[in-house]
Specification:
This protein is mainly α. It folds into two domains: 144 residues, Serine Threonine Protein Phosphatase 5, Tetratricopeptide repeat (Alpha Horseshoe); 91 residues, no CATH class. Helix content is 66%, strand content 0%. α2 packs across α3 and α13 runs antiparallel to α14. The longest helix has 16 residues. The protein is globular and about 70 Å long. The two termini are 20 Å apart.
């Protein structure tokens, strides 16, 4: 069964932006933000930002970037982030890096992203450490350096950041940037998977499925495949189909296996499409129709309860 060991860059992720200027302002603005009263937030933040308060500048940038209480305006978001970042405010540095990384409101530039991530990561921002690690991992904006990637993943992972824990586990499993060590891979996957990280759930399932670094256990493998599959993770959906086809960890069920192959193929996952086509040649038209209906129902339920 194929195991996916990828460092994935997700869509734009903003830091919380709910730390404000002073104790009273902090409480009032944070409460207003939480209840969606953005007019009050802006009433508090704007004068503080104009006075040079870095936190307020960063949070005003966030309001403009998200279009909360104001028309979305990336240019103004960048303006306020830059003012806060110039004062060394790490949240603004991260948000600037993320905008450069994803090309949101600014020309996409891994080099600029790396610069801002470095500044925020050095101040202990876990997300910045993770994204910086990913840039080194992929060789984006900098020469590929797997050992440096591991360094930053570890710093974020030790703060409990699930995506970094997952990627650190993958680094240990593959022996990239660090000596291969299945025990360490399992350790980090086991920390990330319960947090809902689908990649870690899938990779943990694969280790149990193959018996790598741990006693082979198909039942536990299916447990983790299913959790990832329910999040729409196509590789896990395909592997869950294989488990049903072979009767590994579950009762053998060709129709249900075909259902999971169809579901995985909906995302364009090559292994799922291949397995779907292979199993269809062994099935009756009635069985295929049944699996197709089950797959459609599963998709409409957002992959939940597709046992």
């Amino acid at each position: 069964m194929k195991r996916l060991l990828l460092t994935s860059m997700t869509a734009l992720i903003l830091s919380a932006g709910t730390t404000w200027a002073g104790p009273t302002d902090d409480a009032n603005a944070a409460a207003a933000y939480k209840r969606g009263d953005y007019a009050t937030v802006l009433e508090i933040v704007r004068p503080l930002a104009a006075q040079g308060y870095a936190k307020a500048q960063s949070n005003l940038g966030l309001m403009y970037q998200q279009g909360k209480g104001v028309p979305q305006d990336y240019a103004k978001a960048l303006k306020w982030y830059h003012l806060a970042a110039a004062q060394g405010y790490a949240t603004a540095q991260f948000n600037l890096g993320n905008m450069c990384d994803t090309g949101v409101g600014v020309a996409q530039s891994y080099t600029e992203a790396s610069k801002w991530y470095h500044l925020a990561a050095a101040q202990g921002i876990a997300k910045a450490q993770y994204y910086l690690g990913a840039l080194y991992d992929q060789g984006h904006g900098t020469k590929q350096d797997l050992a440096e990637a591991v360094k930053w993943y570890r710093l974020a992972a030790e703060q409990g950041y699930a995506a970094a824990q997952s990627n650190l586990g993958a680094s240990y499993e593959k022996g990239q940037g660090v000596r291969q060590d299945y025990a360490e891979a399992l350790k980090w996957y086991r920390l990330a998977a319960p947090q809902g990280n689908a990649v870690a759930q899938f990779n943990l399932g694969s280790l149990y499925d193959q018996g790598q670094g741990i006693k082979q256990d198909y039942v536990v493998a299916v447990k983790w495949y299913r959790l990832a599959a329910e999040q729409g993770y196509a590789a896990a959906q395909s592997n869950l189909g294989v488990s049903y086809l072979k009767g590994h960890g579950v009762a053998q069920d060709t129709v249900r296996a075909h259902m999971w192959f169809i579901v995985g193929a909906m995302s364009g996952y090559a292994d799922a499409m291949k397995n779907r086509d292979i199993t269809s040649k062994r099935m009756t038209p009635h069985q295929i129709a049944e699996a197709q209906k089950m797959a459609s129902d599963c998709q409409h339920r957002n992959f939940r309860g597709c046992t």
